[in-house]
Design goal:
Blueprint lengths: L28 H10 L12 E4 L4 E12 L5 E7 L5 E4 L1 H7 L57 E15 L4 E13 L5 E9 L2 H4 L8 E10 L5 E3 L13 E11 L1
Antiparallel strand pairs: 1-2, 2-3, 3-4, 5-6, 5-8, 5-9, 6-7, 8-10
């Protein structure tokens, strides 16, 4: 059945939410495919290039130009889409995924045309204090010293690390297991080297070209964020990975060399 699309001028009432300043773009085709699959927007062998943006009175094809990161640990993504008229706007991955359903918007959309954007992080409301009676002459509890917070660089930096293992971790976007690489002895090489211990990254097509093996030492450039590795299984021996042990994720590794 043919889909009748309205003229461009019909979108004059739309509220666009363009990205605020610079946003992340894709390094190459492999990086694009990795992110689109991570967002659950394509499960086919060939990753889709166009997606439907739907409202109650029309639907349009859009392309993905890049993404923004948000959240205290920068683990959230907002997709930057481009309309056929050249306008850019931001939308949450899960909302764009819903729009690909044939039944989307048939009964629930409002008359006003808007584009969904992620709600910014809100502070937790303070819990009301409850006065508790304490035993008399109770010794004050010793204050535990908080671990020193590590300030992660926002820009690309140079790393050295060692391949620890390959693993599968569950991706709730596409409801499939994703293969990842767990690295140990991860160090940011700078004037004062910063030791991070364990980190992980997606076992992308780019990395697979290097045919990595556990125990191999690497150096590369990349970005790092604080994002725990979801509990998963080792590729080889089916052993569980401890979620708390891997707290950092490496994005877009490039200029990779085996030491």
């Amino acid at each position: 059945m043919a889909i009748h699309l309205p003229h461009i001028e019909d979108t004059d009432s739309m509220n666009y939410y363009p990205p605020k300043g610079d946003y992340e773009t894709f390094v190459d085709e492999a990086h694009y495919e990795e992110k689109v699959r991570e967002w659950g927007l394509s499960t086919t062998r060939e990753v889709k290039k166009e997606f439907w943006f739907k409202e109650k009175t029309f639907q349009r094809l859009v392309t993905i130009k890049g993404y923004e990161v948000y959240g205290k640990t920068a683990e959230g993504n907002t997709i930057v889409i481009e309309f056929q008229d050249g306008n850019l706007s931001c939308i949450h991955p899960s909302y764009l995924k819903e729009m690909q359903s044939p039944s989307f918007g048939k009964a629930s959309l409002t008359e006003t045309t808007t584009i969904a954007v992620p709600v910014s992080d809100t502070k937790n409301s303070p819990t009301p204090k409850v006065e508790k009676s304490e035993p008399k002459q109770k010794a004050p509890a010793e204050k535990k010293e908080k671990p020193k917070k590590i300030e992660l660089p926002e820009e690309k930096v140079h790393f050295t690390a060692t391949v620890k293992q390959f693993a599968y971790t569950w991706n709730h976007f596409n409801e499939e297991n994703d293969e990842v690489v767990v690295l140990e002895n991860v160090v940011i090489e700078q004037d004062q080297p910063l030791e991070l211990g364990l980190a992980w990254c997606s076992h992308s097509k780019t990395l697979k070209k290097f045919e990595l093996s556990p125990g191999e030492a690497l150096e590369f450039d990349g970005k790092i964020i604080k994002k725990k590795l979801a509990k998963g299984k080792d590729v080889e021996d089916d052993a569980f990975i401890i979620e708390e042990a891997v707290s950092y994720k490496l994005n877009n590794p490039s200029k990779i060399k085996k030491s």
